[in-house]
């Protein structure tokens, strides 16, 4: 029995490791009998015979005439080429089959405007697949609890994101920092009504539970979800803005946006990772800079001056 067993190299072509081991034994001893191969591999003759049938069917070896039966290995280059051609043919056949399945699936979807996906793993996978397929734009409504976090997987490839976060979704300074880095494409709103991802305005993913997802492809339901998003987008407050030449710094603008979203000084301090007294002092400076007496008035004047858009 050989003490050294090289790593398999034909697995990608559908050859199991034991078949490949037997093929290698034949390469080392052409014209071998099953008994010879049993001695070389340390296998029982019945095991050798079983794998010989597989090796022969794969075209890796041939049986020579006469008794006892002897086996000759195929030339590796020719054997691998044959296996590769079979693999390519199988891929083509699978693609043809997939087109048939796709046509059947689309026919069912035309009759049923939505599909329900169940299971936490399936829900997470569908969210990821949908965003990976995005070409132009992804719209997100995000609120806790997070069974699946919004993942902006294609922002770097030119796909635009607009995300509305529920205030409760920004639970710590790290969350706020991530949102700030996204620029004006992110806004914050108190009491976001649902969790939603819409891809290229043609596929809507509405999460109705921790492990339940409703996928909508077209029709009045998707149109309604799009109208809801745009309405909430107009109501939501920009959370992160570009520095301006006005009386507010970028940090001031962020603080005012959080306040306009309804957060208390204590909540703002917790999200920004600063002391509450720091928030109070900065708010007083903001009110003075905008000549405002209330936070509502300050937010209104900042919006009128284009400081929060």
From TrEMBL:
<dbReference type="Pfam" id="PF01978">
    <property type="entry name" value="TrmB"/>
</dbReference>
<feature type="domain" description="HTH luxR-type">
    <location>
        <begin position="241"/>
        <end position="306"/>
    </location>
</feature>
<dbReference type="InterPro" id="IPR002831">
    <property type="entry name" value="Tscrpt_reg_TrmB_N"/>
</dbReference>
<dbReference type="InterPro" id="IPR051797">
    <property type="entry name" value="TrmB-like"/>
</dbReference>
<dbReference type="InterPro" id="IPR016032">
    <property type="entry name" value="Sig_transdc_resp-reg_C-effctor"/>
</dbReference>
<dbReference type="Pfam" id="PF00196">
    <property type="entry name" value="GerE"/>
</dbReference>
<dbReference type="InterPro" id="IPR036388">
    <property type="entry name" value="WH-like_DNA-bd_sf"/>
</dbReference>
<dbReference type="InterPro" id="IPR000792">
    <property type="entry name" value="Tscrpt_reg_LuxR_C"/>
</dbReference>
<dbReference type="InterPro" id="IPR036390">
    <property type="entry name" value="WH_DNA-bd_sf"/>
</dbReference>
<dbReference type="GO" id="GO:0006355">
    <property type="term" value="P:regulation of DNA-templated transcription"/>
</dbReference>
<dbReference type="GO" id="GO:0003677">
    <property type="term" value="F:DNA binding"/>
</dbReference>
<protein>
    <submittedName>
        <fullName>Regulatory LuxR family protein</fullName>
    </submittedName>
</protein>
């Amino acid at each position: 029995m050989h003490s050294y067993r090289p790593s398999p190299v034909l697995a990608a072509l559908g050859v199991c490791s034991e078949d490949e081991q037997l093929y290698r034994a034949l390469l080392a001893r052409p014209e071998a009998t099953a008994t010879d191969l049993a001695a070389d591999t340390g296998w029982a003759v019945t095991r050798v015979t079983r794998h010989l049938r597989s090796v022969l069917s794969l075209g890796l070896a041939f049986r020579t005439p006469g008794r006892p039966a002897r086996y000759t290995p195929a030339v590796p280059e020719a054997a691998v080429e044959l296996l590769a051609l079979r693999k390519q043919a199988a891929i083509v056949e699978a693609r043809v089959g997939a087109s048939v399945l796709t046509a059947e699936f689309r026919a069912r979807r035309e009759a049923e405007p939505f599909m329900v996906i169940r299971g936490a793993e399936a829900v997470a996978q569908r969210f990821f697949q949908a965003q990976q397929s995005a070409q132009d734009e992804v719209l997100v409504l995000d609120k806790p609890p997070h069974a699946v976090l919004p993942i902006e997987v294609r922002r770097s490839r030119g796909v635009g994101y607009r995300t509305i976060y529920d205030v409760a979704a920004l639970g710590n300074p790290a969350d706020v920092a991530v949102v700030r880095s996204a620029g004006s494409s992110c806004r914050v709103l108190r009491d976001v009504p649902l969790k939603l991802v819409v891809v290229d305005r043609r596929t809507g993913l509405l999460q109705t539970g921790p492990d339940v997802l409703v996928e909508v492809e077209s029709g009045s339901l998707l149109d309604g979800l799009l109208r809801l998003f745009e309405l909430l987008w107009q109501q939501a407050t920009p959370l992160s803005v570009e520095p301006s030449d006005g009386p507010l710094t970028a940090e001031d603008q962020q603080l005012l946006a959080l306040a306009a979203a309804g957060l208390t000084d204590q909540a703002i301090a917790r999200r920004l990772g600063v002391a509450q007294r720091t928030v109070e002092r900065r708010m007083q400076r903001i009110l003075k800079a905008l000549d405002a007496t209330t936070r509502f008035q300050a937010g209104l004047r900042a919006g009128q001056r284009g400081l929060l858009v």
